[in-house]
């Protein structure tokens, strides 16, 4: 236990080339951010909470495209001290702050994304479509809880697409997959998809377009994500119904024009 806690709390050596790659491409993939032992220690608790809190009860074949993409459970940290330890990791949060070039980062929310065996495509989208933030200083760390080969559907990024404003008004859907697949190809944003080793994670900006292939293996693709936001982020007026819902759910007591200060959004790293 001491070893895994140390792993979550110690500093990760992030070089300036990784920071430069992130700024240029809108994402970066980093090796050995967490040890296999740490992931093995926390995975059973995360998976147990996904099973306990999941509300999706339709068979896979009866769901829409979004429902087939993954089981989605948010803010597991509120239901488990063990998950709270994991989500509160200063090591992970410090990397987020360094990549964003900000002094401090807050938690926006966590999110488990489990793509079941036979689970379908995750359509092209940008996460920040859903978030009422005034700037782009927000980032998601994508943490696979097992080795993730290509046939399991790892995250695929459109490199450099964080600068591309077309399609930012599209939620995850069949339409976003069709429209963005064509638009990103026309603009020659390379698609980058690679397997993940155990302990390898990626960070991507809120406006970086990404998607994932179906899970063609006989086991679930288990992924935990943590979304970080500049601790000084101002809340923007919601631009759609999803942002209105996010403001109410993940920023309770806060309003547009205010700096995030909700009790659900603690500072996880301050430099």
UniProtKB/TrEMBL annotation:
This is Ectoine hydroxylase-related dioxygenase (Phytanoyl-CoA dioxygenase family). Keywords: Dioxygenase, Oxidoreductase. It holds the Pfam family PhyH. The keyword DNA-binding does not apply. It comes from Kribbella orskensis. Gene3D superfamilies: q2cbj1_9rhob like domain. The keyword Manganese does not apply. One of its GO terms (molecular function) is dioxygenase activity. It comes from the Bacteria.
